[in-house]
Amino acid sequence: MKTVLLAALSSVALFTSGAALADTLLRVNQLGYLPDGPKRASLITDRPTPVLWQLVDAKGREIARGQTKPLGMDASVGRKVHLIDFSEVRESGEKLSLVAERVTSPPFAIKPKLYVNLPRDAFGYFYPMRSGIEIRADIAGEAYARPAGHVSAPKSGALNQGDKAVPCQEEGSSLKIYGDPWSCDYTLDVTGGWYDAGDQGKYVVNGALSVAQLMSTFERTLYAKSASAKPFADGALALPEHGNGVPDALDEARWELEFLLSMQVPEGPPLAGMAHHKVHDDEWTGIPTLPHEDPKRRLLHRPSTAATLNLAAAAAQGARLFKPYDAAFAERLLKAAQQAWRAAAEHPGLIAPEGDSDGGGAYHDTDLTDELYWAAAELFITTGNADYRAAIEASPHWRSSIFKPAGYEWANVETRAALSLALVPNSLSRSDAEWLKRDIVTAADEYLKLQKRAPFGHVYDPPEGRYAWGSNHLILQNAIIIARAHDLTGSPKYRDAVLETMDYIFGRNGPGISYVTGYGTDYAKNQHSRWFAYAADPALPGPPKGTLAGGPNVWLSDEIVREKRKGCAPQFCYIDDIESWSTNETAINWNAALAELSGFLAEQ
């Protein structure tokens, strides 16, 4: 909507044009807006007709004014919503606010380079999440310093001997889970990797997707014309491997890749080459529990085909990226990926059961066609082998529409295959390569249509409007696809769509909260975590700056949100409470989506 400068109207008219509604809400991107980018806000009000708005500076002086555009009822908030569009304002400023219906928005900025620090902060989440290494105060900050987690017994007589020699589940307990008395006669040293979320579990399925997204953050800088590798260069991020000549993004990825390799069944046992699905405690721990104080027993869970294919995909991608920096490690990765591919072919139906959730998440998935597609794609890109190309072409996901308005996550990874195949040079035919690129651009165009209909400017349309677990990262995954369309075409409409999507993440949403810790005025700070647990124990820190909260989840799976948000409209099915694990948890895959998009945003 064109900004209308109404100099003839007095400011008094703006504030007395009618009685203000007590439940009127004004939502903005609390971080701010780029001078040459879209600038929109959302006004939740029952007014049926346009209302006047002002943009003012810190001293209350008017910069611009105009009229809202009524958009009607929005089911995601259960209210009528108006659009405020002040995109014509190009002047920079700090501590600006919008005013409408006698409601003033949180302050925000209009300035360039708004997102320049986001890569460091989004990646900075991962170092304190590392297992098996001391977290140093000089890197993570004094509040986050702690001894290495799961490397030895925290005290005499404790059951937890760390992750250095972890046994498999016993036959008695596994019989109840799998219907089969599975176990193994070996132990594995699975030290390292990232803790998955608010608990101390480590999961191959989710870890592989997360590390792939971190690697893709760097891989994009090799092939996208406008991309900059500077935010991910050696010395750019907060981690201990500085000065080794390896980009920091790959150093952080290696910490997880080494763990994934350690989860592979060694030569000799019946399931050699397969990947154990996960390792975690035999019981849930409480809040707070620091990793080095975890008293529970650690167990390896039965290998799964999903974990094995995910390992194959991530390791194959890592093999090509690490080759210029560490050829021996690259060779290890490729060998492991190929072994995993063969093992998965021999054991195509090992499904992780839904009920295996004592002490950790199940990560249950019965459709593995997407994992097979992703693994084949990454192996094909890295090796050029015709067998992998044949597997790609045999997939139901090949040359079919795979981009969904509800986004994708660990159980639906076919999108990763398409993004890699369209970005990284490979030996697909020219017509196949062009089709993939057109498909991404077509998907982005559909997302832009969706965004145009969305009163809060975000790109997300789940079935029946039901916001899902981790909805915030699903929105970011869709934004990554739009960003890739910009990389492929250079069209500014895709850049603007990504920027407007971030409005929702940083406060232009129903609750009016920035879902990234440390960003904005009113941001999430009590995410569910056993060691970023200031809300439970003031001696501990809160989540580090750059931590993404899970976001609205209509399933209300925990007691806190059920009690306090009963009957909520989808966007309001969220609470910034440490006990709300279903709406407010942290997770590596959620922050990986933020990290992957951060590079694109920092360039704008």
Automatic annotation (TrEMBL):
InterPro entries recorded: 6-hairpin_glycosidase_sf, 6hp_glycosidase-like_sf, Cellulase_Ig-like, Glyco_hydro_9, Glyco_hydro_9_Asp/Glu_AS, Ig-like_fold, Ig_E-set
EC number: 3.2.1.4
Keywords carried by this UniProt record: Carbohydrate metabolism, Cellulose degradation, Glycosidase, Hydrolase, Polysaccharide degradation, Signal
GO biological process, one term: cellulose catabolic process
The organism's place on the tree of life at top rank: Bacteria
Pfam families xrefs: CelD_N, Glyco_hydro_9
Protein name: Endoglucanase
Organism name: Nitratireductor indicus C115
